[in-house]
Q: What sequence folds into this?
């Protein structure tokens, strides 16, 4: 776990900085500089582009990770890498033609409930293209076990760019149209930087010399495409559907809560950047012992760190939202609890998803993703009209919880491995007890002082328990290294 620990710690720092800028943008600048309607529109456009992105990317980013280490010959690796990067371009051209041909029909269908969407529908496709190709070249760097700088572009760059853009919006009085156009340009600047970085690690060439197993590669890519699209539905269908069923301002309230809850998965987002290629290598080398080792260790470490984040987020959400100018944001505390619980359940699965997607039985990913997408879509249709944004969050929690249980059972059946350990169970019990205890504490202080005091108390108590019970040797070694 040496390289995992090293690059994970670097990636955690990167994502921590990204979330700092994201927090300023989401909790301060967006509510202060944009109306709830305009903020909701931005969230809708970016979420819908995320839904479209997997279709354009054709699963090539995961295909690069899956197949690169399977070639032992350098020439075959080059032939593989040079031949796959043009496929998303073909898909983008095809989908672009379809979007142009049916543009008015698409615009009218998306803007029935909120007419403001009509003028900015074009943003969805353009941002999706830039994001899809960014993921392709990011995978290009990751298979060289170089994830840190790419992770800076993935996590810090868009938030820092938005940070500067929101400042310009307020102080230089940019119009909203200029804001949107500059935002789109920023995504393409990021893509160009990622291409230059990927070329530095492994020269980028475009040659149509297909490897001998091109048929299996295309089948795998198509399967991952469908699975990734279904996965995007699970993540972003709520932010897409809320403006179709509610006022678009509700999307802004929901996005604030989602951002707060997403802090729980910061460790996973850092670790998976380097863990995914290592899992692929272990699978390709037919090393079940290493696969099982990565599975258990990743699950334990993620639960220990994410449990701490879960406590900080949920014990402070009410005080945090009371600082925001629009009282509508204060209605989203239940959303934070539901989504953060869903994120914590995902941490229990560790690198299980990477094991499935890199194994010979990867096709089951499509089945799981389709079932989850159908489930979350159906529950959103049922629960958003009844419960509003709380219903959207509850749908996510129910579907993710059920899918994690099914995936664990499937992996146990296929490779006789599970992520559980006694230390993980103790960690979950500790998190639950501390949440109940500190939730009952009511400090009669200003919201800022309450957040600072409660966060400090929770952190000290939780860290002391983790160290005293030695819940994770990997994290303790990392802590000692940081102290030294």
A:
């Amino acid at each position: 776990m040496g390289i995992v620990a090293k690059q994970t710690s670097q990636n955690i720092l990167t994502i921590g900085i990204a979330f700092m800028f994201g927090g300023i943008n989401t909790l301060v600048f967006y509510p202060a500089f944009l109306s709830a309607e305009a903020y909701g529109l931005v969230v809708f456009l970016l979420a819908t582009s995320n839904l479209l992105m997997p279709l354009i990317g054709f699963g090539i980013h995961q295909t690069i990770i899956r197949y690169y280490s399977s070639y032992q010959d350098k020439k075959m690796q080059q032939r593989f890498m040079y031949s796959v990067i043009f496929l998303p371009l073909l898909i983008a051209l095809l989908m672009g033609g379809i979007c142009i041909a049916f543009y008015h029909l698409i615009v009218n269908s998306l803007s029935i409930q909120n007419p403001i969407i009509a003028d900015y529908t074009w943003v969805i496709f353009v941002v999706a293209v830039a994001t899809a190709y960014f993921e392709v070249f990011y995978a290009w760097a990751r298979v060289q076990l170089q994830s840190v700088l790419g992770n800076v572009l993935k996590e810090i760059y868009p938030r820092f760019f938005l940070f500067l853009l929101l400042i310009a919006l307020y102080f230089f009085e940019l119009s909203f149209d200029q804001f949107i156009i500059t935002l789109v340009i920023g995504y393409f600047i990021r893509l160009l930087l990622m291409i230059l970085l990927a070329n530095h690690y492994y020269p980028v060439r475009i040659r149509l010399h297909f490897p001998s197993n091109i048929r299996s590669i295309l089948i795998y890519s198509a399967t991952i495409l469908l699975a990734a699209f279904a996965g995007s539905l699970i993540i972003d269908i709520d932010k897409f559907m809320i403006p179709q069923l509610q006022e678009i301002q509700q999307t802004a309230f929901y996005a604030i809560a989602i951002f707060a809850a997403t802090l729980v998965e910061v460790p996973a987002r850092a670790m998976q950047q380097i863990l995914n290629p290592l899992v692929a290598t272990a699978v390709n080398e037919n090393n079940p012992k290493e696969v099982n080792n990565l599975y258990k260790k990743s699950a334990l470490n993620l639960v220990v760190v994410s449990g701490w984040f879960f406590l900080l987020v949920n014990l402070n959400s009410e005080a945090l939202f009371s600082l925001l100018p629009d009282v509508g944001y204060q209605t989203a505390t239940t959303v934070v609890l539901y989504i953060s619980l869903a994120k914590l359940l995902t941490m229990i699965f560790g690198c299980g998803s990477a094991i499935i997607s890199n194994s010979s039985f990867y096709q089951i990913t499509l089945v799981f993703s389709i079932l989850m997408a159908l489930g979350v879509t159906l529950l959103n249709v049922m629960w958003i009209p009844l419960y509003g944004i709380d219903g959207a969050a509850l749908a996510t929690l129910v579907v993710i919880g059920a899918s994690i249980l099914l995936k664990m059972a499937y992996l146990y059946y296929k490779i006789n491995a599970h992520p559980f350990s006694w230390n993980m169970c103790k960690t979950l019990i500790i998190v639950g007890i501390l949440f109940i205890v500190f939730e009952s504490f009511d400090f009669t202080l200003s919201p800022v002082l309450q957040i600072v005091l409660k966060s400090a108390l929770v952190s000290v108590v939780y860290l002391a328990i983790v160290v005293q019970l030695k819940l994770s040797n990997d994290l303790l070694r990392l802590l000692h290294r940081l102290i030294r």
About this structure: The radius of gyration is 22 Å. Residues 143 and 386 are 46 Å apart (CA to CA).
